[in-house]
Automatic annotation (TrEMBL):
Protein's name in the database: Carbohydrate kinase
GO cellular component term of the entry, any: cytosol
Similarity field: Belongs to the FGGY kinase family.
Membrane spanning stretches: none
The organism of origin for this protein: Paenibacillus darwinianus
One of the GO BP terms on file: glycerol metabolic process
Classification via InterPro entries: ATPase_NBD, FGGY_C, FGGY_N, Rhamnulokinase
Length: 497
């Protein structure tokens, strides 16, 4: 029997998708069945000096997904939207969008980590926000606008983070979902309030921030004009764990008890789930984030540059008309020589778009290593370096949380790269359990089911994931000594054990 049907939109930095989730019960055995009904590219647009999201196109695709769900006969009861963190739109006093939202890789935040760090004090910033200072954090974006005397910021009445903005366009209801709020670096996770004093000191208007709503909050029904336009009934929007990373963590099929995970996509988020933030001296030195999660959790995690580096290489090669698929890249990496050269994936040069193969070459040249020439050598260098970085981040997570983990759960689109999963198991010397791929969309659906009382809690949700999706296990191979040796080289290169 069919217990409930929900619709999830998961928007990533390069594509978005809509998935139907059907919660079923066969003789007391509950399962979640998901079907992808819509997928679309997310193409940022450069306008003058700025890089923007095409927010109206994204809205159009979300509307298209809602229409398709009903056209295909699904009796959808609710929908939820999750996206990447930190980005936002500003509304004026009439509730209209002011300008096109900036893309988090817009260079207008260059240099602002140092500037705000000097103004406020790095220690104080960390003690209050509990976040790794990343150039894209909302705080730096708003400060960039303030420094540019942005008329938009002056006119702004309300700030809506991307998922909340899309939900607002569809329902007319304004909320600020909690997990996204905690990515701004303007929220205080220990006190659980906005950091209005910090806003004042930076001249960021406190009036634009709404009181956060917890994941699972019912936002409101689709607006009448949207129902008319799409010819669909008035289904409810649920504020899920609207930050994609937090939705993905909901879908980690871990049994009860502490576990370590890696959400693997454009970014790699590696960490563990806790009840309270850890804002210690050591956490600050290692720059770990405490992000608000679903169900009263905090996620202690490290943000690592991730498959972005490989995606950018591929984009460059495709543009040079040397088109290559991720599959082919993995094949070529497999046959390239092991441990020839390695990079620190978090070196700042890899953050911005463009020229990625050249950046890898210059990094290797500067660090007196053999310079990768072929595509396979580049890909091997990236994948091995990421695996080594994961080992380092897992060690650090264990130290901070005072836990030892038997293995690592990997979820998200990046796990389709089997070589990366295998390298990670080898680098860790521990098993990797991979799956599900569509973790964010699945977590999004599960929070909708929790909101409607169809699923009890996080533990129930994770049992459902384990019962519904295949999980692959990668065991480390017997090349331990080589990986240990490579790890020592990696530590010497990056300078932080
Ligand atoms: C992953 C993610 C990360 C966040 C980065 C930028 O998609 O949401 O958690 O740090 O994107 O928003």
């Amino acid at each position: 029997t069919l217990l409930s049907v929900a619709l999830a939109f998961d928007l990533g930095a390069s594509s978005g998708r809509a998935l139907i989730g059907e919660l079923t019960d066969e003789c007391g055995r509950q399962q979640l069945r998901v079907t992808e009904i819509h997928r679309f590219p997310n193409r940022p647009v450069q306008v003058g000096r700025h890089l923007h999201w095409d927010i109206l196109q994204l809205l159009q695709e979300v509307k298209g997904g809602i229409r398709k769900a009903f056209q295909q006969g699904y009796a959808v009861e609710s929908f939820g939207i999750d996206t990447w963190g930190v980005d936002f739109g500003l509304l004026d006093a009439n509730g209209e969008l002011l300008g096109n939202p900036y893309h988090y890789r817009d260079p207008h935040t260059d240099g602002l980590i140092a500037e705000i760090g000097a103004l406020i004090g790095k220690g104080e910033l960390y003690e209050q926000g509990g976040l790794q200072s990343m150039p894209f954090n909302t705080i730096y974006q708003l400060y960039a606008m303030k420094k540019a005397d942005s008329p938009q910021l002056q006119a702004a009445q309300t700030l809506l983070l991307t998922p909340d903005l899309l939900v607002y366009f569809l329902t007319g209801c304004k909320v600020c979902e909690f997990t996204m709020a905690t990515t701004t670096q303007l929220y205080m996770p220990l006190e659980q309030v906005w950091n209005t004093r910090l806003m004042e000191r930076l001249d960021i208007p406190a009036r634009i921030f709404l009181e956060p709503s917890l994941p699972g909050t019912l936002v409101g029904p689709l607006a009448d004009d949207v129902c008319l336009e799409l010819n669909v009934p008035k289904i409810d929007a649920v504020a899920v764990g609207t930050h994609d990373t937090e939705s993905a963590v909901v879908a980690v099929p871990a049994p009860p008890g502490p576990f370590a995970y890696l959400v693997c996509g454009t970014w790699s988020l590696l960490g563990t789930e806790l009840d309270t933030p850890i804002i210690s001296e050591e956490a600050r030195e290692l720059e770990f984030s405490n992000e608000g999660g679903v169900g009263g959790t905090y996620q202690l995690l490290k943000n690592i540059m991730g498959l972005w580096i490989l995606q950018e290489c591929k984009r460059e090669w495709d543009e040079r008309d040397e088109t290559v698929s991720f599959q082919e890249l993995a094949e070529e990496a497999r046959s390239a020589a092991p441990f020839r050269s390695m990079i620190d994936p978090d070196d700042a040069r890899f953050y911005g778009p463009g020229g990625m193969p050249g950046k890898i070459q210059s990094y290797c040249r500067e660090t007196n290593q053999p310079v990768p020439e072929s595509k396979g050598e580049h890909a091997r260098c990236i994948l091995e370096s990421l695996a080594l970085r994961y080992r380092q981040a897992l060690d650090q997570t264990e130290r901070l949380a005072g836990q030892r983990f038997d293995g690592l759960h990997m979820v998200g689109g990046g796990i389709q790269n089997e070589l990366l999963c295998r390298f990670t198991a080898c680098a860790l010397g521990r098993p990797v359990w991979s799956g599900p791929v569509e973790a964010s969309a699945i977590g999004n659906l599960l929070v909708q089911f929790i909101a409607k009382g169809k699923c009890a809690d996080l533990q129930h949700a994770r049992r459902l994931v384990a019962a519904s999706f295949p999980i692959d296990t990668y065991e480390p191979l017997d090349d331990r000594a080589e990986w240990d040796f490579a790890y020592r080289r990696f530590i010497a290169l990056t300078g932080t054990p």
